[in-house]
Amino acid sequence: MPQRPLVRVGLIALLPALLVYVLALWLSAAAGIRTQLVIRDLAQTCDTALGVGLLSNIGYLLWISAAAIALFAGLSGVLAIRGRVRQLLVSGGLFSLLLCIDDMFLLHDRYIGSTFLYSLYAIFALLILFRFRPQVRALGGGSFLLAVVLLGASVVIDQLQEVIPVPYTTLQLFEEGAKFLGIATWLAFWWQAAAGAAKLKA
Fold first, then answer.
1. Helix, strand or coil for residue 39?
2. How buried is residue 55: exposed, middle or buried, by Cβ count under 10 Å (0-12/13-18/19+)?
3. Would residue 44 count as lying in a domain?
């Protein structure tokens, strides 16, 4: 009996982690990237100061925190959550995870067109808002809307930076500031949603 929890940990944690580790090393080697560059921290590799990329790194932590909170509340079974409330949390958790991956690996800048991804994100946000409107409203809809407005403002500035008659460095301050505040508010909503979900009926 004591071994069963270890088997579960092996299946849901160790095995997936090992697969990711090996796959990352294999793909990197195939692309001609040295192993040391893959396994070491980027700041250590580039020998940069602590503040370089600091706000961006904190943003990753906020994104993944929102994903972890929502997915844990929706899937763990610890809270008595079911029905549309559970669907909302799982949807929000997966959406947050996607946003985190995009932000970390710059999918919208390097691999997939930003217009396509931003449009997709807007559709996802609207689907969450309209499909789960009663649940979102009951769990702190103001926070959700504020997060969407702030993140949307960041996207608009990014897309219109070439036509706005303001220096690029100044625009970056507003774009990244709106994004950072939006991520923090996004996390706050999913924290509120997870905390209050068990009190709602499905």
1. helix
2. exposed
3. no
Query: Comparing 148 with 11, which gets the higher pLDDT?
Result: 148
Same domain, 84 and 105: yes
One domain for residues 9 and 65: no
Per-residue pLDDT tens digits for 39-73? 988 888 888 887 888 999 999 999 999 999 999 99
Residues 103 and 169 grouped into a single domain: yes
Report which secondary-structure segment, H or E, holds 40. Answer: none
Which tokens go with 200? Answer: 């709602």
Q: How far is CA 89 from CA 56, 76, 139, 190, in A?
A: 25, 11, 11, 8
DSSP 100-114: HHHHHHTIIIIIS-H
Range of the domain at 149: 49-197
Q: What is the C-alpha separation between 60 and 127, in angstroms, rounded?
A: 24
Alpha-carbon dihedral sign for residues 191, 107, 182, 46: positive
